[in-house]
Amino acid sequence: MVDSFFKYISFEKRYSKHTVISYQSDLAQFTNYISEQFKCSDLSLATQIMVRSWVLSLMDAGTSPRTVNRKIASLRSYYKFLIKRGEIEKDPTAKVRLLKTQKDLPSFADEKELVNLLDRFEFTHDFEGLRQKLIIELLYGTGIRLSELIGLKDSDINHYESALKVLGKRNKERVIPIAAPLLSLIAQYKAEKNHVFGGNPNAFLLVNNKGDKAYPMMVYRIVNNFLDMVSSTEKKSPHALRHTFATHLLNKGADLNAVKDLLGHSSLAATQVYTHNSLEKLKSIFDQAHPKA
Hints:
- With 293 residues, this protein is mainly alpha-helical.
- The protein contains 13 helices and three strands.
- The protein has a three-stranded antiparallel β-sheet.
- Helix 2 packs across helix 4, helix 5 crosses helix 9 and helix 6 runs antiparallel to helix 8.
- Forms a cyclic heterotetrameric complex composed of two molecules of XerC and two molecules of XerD.
- It holds the Pfam family Phage_int_SAM_1.
- One of its GO terms (biological process) is cell division.
């Protein structure tokens, strides 16, 4: 049933490869634990006591509450699958509570910092320079995820409608508008890329120095290096630019539902975390401007 479960979340639920790998790791870890501690090698026979014992062992080992909760969620998904298939009657995770976690506000760069980088820094005009600027412009200008960025193909750029097509989580497609300057930069980059590596309409938009598909660490290094020059934000990653995109939109009065759609969130709950940053800015303005503040 474990193999059937992984096929189910991969092909029917369309979970990402990273999520499937996490589920596989979590279930394997739990299987090993109950086998060693309770001499039980069948996940379908696990009890609530076994699950709670595993959670306690994770906590004793110093595992973060966020990671423990993710592992509990993996088990819950599996046991819901078993119940749905009629393999078990009771879910051993049903009464296992999630741990309390500290909600960290998303880390984002200041607006002036990004303007200084993108408008005043002199990127080189060769292939590498254009690629560096395009990576930062795309992440900040569209809010796409790292995996979505490296998955972009030349054919995903619609120059006529000034938009790009993104394949997000669970293979959900969304269309994001792009500004004229970014569209112009994409055209410059593509021309230089085609000059260096040759043209292919189905090729990946971002490639490494050998013309192969860009990889996550390459993008992370580029973003980290350039943000490190201008930004004081603690996290200098591609995801920080996604947070920056959402925060700056909301600070300028963008509709929360519109930001949700741009980010590709399935519900408003995931998007609402950015309203805390906007609220902090409003408090700052209030403190500075109101006579009774």
